[in-house]
Amino acid sequence: MNFQIVNGVSIPDIPWEDRPADCSDVVWRYQHNPVIPRNLLKDSNSIFNSAVVPYQGAYVGVFRIDDRRRVMNLFFGRSQDGLAWQIEPQPIEWVCDDAEIARFQYRYDPRLTWLEDRYYVTWCNGYYGPTIGIGYTHDFTTFYQMENAYLPFNRNGVLFPRKIHGKYAMFSRPSDNGHTPFGDIFYSESPDMVHWGHHRHVLGTGSWCYTKVGAGPIPIETTEGWLLIYHGALTSCNGFVYSMSAVLLDLDKPWKVIYRAAPYMLSPQMIYECVGDVPNVVFPCAALVDQDTQRMAIYYGAADTVTALAFARVDEMVQFVKDTAVKD
Ligand code: BMA
Asked: pTM (2 decimals)?
């Protein structure tokens, strides 16, 4: 197929391992997982659902760290190779000109998006319940916090890496105040990154994720559509089980699903995914993509405890979504 990544970047030294000879899965794990242990910082209880981007020939990330008081906050880190990380011991301090918005309750599950001239951070922000916090940085030294995108309750705010029809665009997942037992992915637009509207339904639940779904990493633009990796949960007699899969969305109207893979691509099966503070969770928040080789490195939280890495090829993932697509 004459398939291409659109608006991609070259990441020649992207973290990578070839698919093991005995594996035929579309996504395969880094053999030295977890890539970040729970206790990398002196006071960390867990380091998981986190975001990573290439930056100045190396990598930077915004990390979800729950500390030993169980305070949930966002931390900044750097890595030369995307594997060994140095995370700053203090959480990110946000510059914000509105004390009401700046008030800290909790912050978790960040995503990082290069958009126009800056890196945006979106996260689940506590403001009388979870909503979508938005901030940005030009240099990963000074971080600015903006208005929350929505009223509570909402989670999994994921920005598009470019405007759609001249508007900023974001996925989100309306929720409740607890461990939400429902949830579909929605699409919204904004002229200014402050006021959000034009809400459209994107994706509902499915067979392996019959309880809820939420957008994962920043969507990847391809000639076949937007490739969106998402997480989904089913409810077992022992609690939620979080897996991940992918859909292809219309380039022009990204709320329209073109193909949806019927099976999951990665489910909790390794010990670090099945055992931890919350068992049976794989939760992707970032994917590095090298446009030249189609290599993809997916960072995901495992069991709400550690950060793990998995690999895939963009062209193979798109083919997988088409080949296994749910038939109406
Ligand atoms: C979701 C979020 C995630 C977490 C997941 C599994 O509701 O809170 O941060 O990884 O539950 O516990």
From this structure: 0.98
